[in-house]
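fold-stage: in
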Amino acid sequence: MATVARAPSDSAPVVDGRRPSIAVVDDDSGFAGYLRTFLALRGYDVRAYSRGDEIIAAIKQGEPPDIVLLDVAMPGMDGLQTLKALKTARPEMQVIMLSGREQAQIIVEAVRLGAADYVVKPGDPEGLGDIAHDSAIKQAIERTRLVDELTSLRRQLSDDQDQAFLGWGDSPAMRQVAHIIEQVADSDVTVLIRGESGVGKELVARAIHQRSTRKNKPFVKVNCAALPAELLESELFGHERGAFTGAATTRIGKFEQANFGTIFLDEIGEMKPPLQAKLLHVLQDAEFTKLGSNKKIEVDVRVVTATNRDLEAMMLRGQFREDLYYRLKVIEAAVPPLRERREEVHQLSHFF
């Protein structure tokens, strides 16, 4: 179970008007207790955990700290395994590894997995003050502040663009697009967005996501024209280590990253038929397998696609699967080019 310590102090930097929170994860209760006390006296809000699975459970319950001080050597789920799980759950999490000795191989692996820093434990309790005063903690807090600020700015920009897009209502065609967005946002039906390059198909996809119940979950974009077919499959579904030449590590695909959110497949007409079959399977069964694996992965993802190509003509030529076409085109939104809605030029120029 987690224990909590708080102390009034002005030593710790302030984040968003509050004292930064730190989680100490170490199976050595004596060390964890001493460090918790030192940090609390410095003004931090501190929780101590004895196992890796405890901090993972706490984060899943909505109690993420600003920083995690994580012991490398722990029974059961060790530090590196816990680090990997933490970064998978919250990539922005600042994690500082703690170890009884400096081990080059462990340091390299920890950095590869996303650790912010690596600190060697002191040999006696008096040295704990050095960790509490360590610049690594203040640097991690500053990175947390910057990530939060960047996320807020991106959200504000996205909201501004979204609102501007829906404000282009002077043309009947765009009013129809806005109407479709409002009608389909709260459902999980697939939407096919059509239009020439540059008309704002991605803005439509983002507007659908922002108005859905998935708005606080990931929005993941994949440009199907940007990668060759053999790499696009890995990009979408991930791969296991050794699945193909150059696959040195296991990779999580975009579908897995978008779990519980929305995946936007831009330029869907560029996807080759063999990969279209695998996409159809995901739409039908909500599961897939990584390259080089037989293990099925279940996902809950809303799929929105876009194209500037004539999919109907491609079907006649055997270049696009008919069954996939009807799966993707449950709802269709056609975005007209600006030359067909010139009354909006003034609004757009004012916005930009």
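fold-stage: in (second)
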Amino acid sequence: MKYIGITGGTGLIGRHLSKLLANDGYEIIVFTRKPDKSRKYIKNTTYAEWNPLKKKIDTEQLAKVEAMVHLSGEGIADKRWTEQRKTDILDSRVLGTEFLVEQLKEHAMECRVLVCSSAIGYYGEDKNGKPFRETDEPANDFLGRTCVQWEAASECAWDFTRRVVLRLGIVLAKEGGAFKEFNKPMNFGIMPILGSGEQMVSWIHVRDVVRMIRFAIERSEVEGIYNTVAPLPVTHSNLVHSMARAKGGIKIPIPVPAPLLKLMLGEMSIEVLKSCTVTPARIMEKGFRFEFRDIESAVKNLCAKPAKK
């Protein structure tokens, strides 16, 4: 296998994945709405047109693809959830996935595997004290219904290739997402505690996300749906205290009450305040081993200063 395509390749996970796979010697084709703004610092990488809502894709580049990773979609937490924003989130995932599968079937005759992202928002709130597994029922809320339709949009890929769906937890990375947002106030000595702080967070280091995607590409026995979270979920309070210890210095805990979060975030506050405990047992049974199993090692790595060259 030589050529790997990535939609969403200019996003947080996509950038890390491109670098990992390029360093492994793969040729990367990033499908993006702005292919002219290529990142030349990523070796072995070509940028190609991708605009699913306008039904556009570079079929010449798509024909080279031997594995496709589908990460694109409007950001869940980028904006307040108005009705229009929820429509945009749903359409970008469902219509985008349907279009990609259709184009792969028609043009990518050598594509051996399609790896699609989903989210643990599929499960909703903890119910019975047991971690969620891939066979559990979806939640009947916005994210639950969105994930059901999102995953269903790639099911017909089974007709022509191996299909893998990764339900992503809270991805921790220096450059963006939850870690970056919590890091901002800590730089001023403030440690925000959202709600009670006792809600469970199923997290994963971005390095393990991209390693799991590579694992799914390279292992032919990996197929179907897998939870993409670290083995040891933590409370929100534990997460931010671990960050504070890793950063050092005095950090003052500042509670952010649930009513204030609901006022600030609207419906999206549900995702910040709920407990969602998820197990990665299925992917571990396939032989995947985490580089960052516990929150202390993960945040220590993310808070470490880059080595001087």
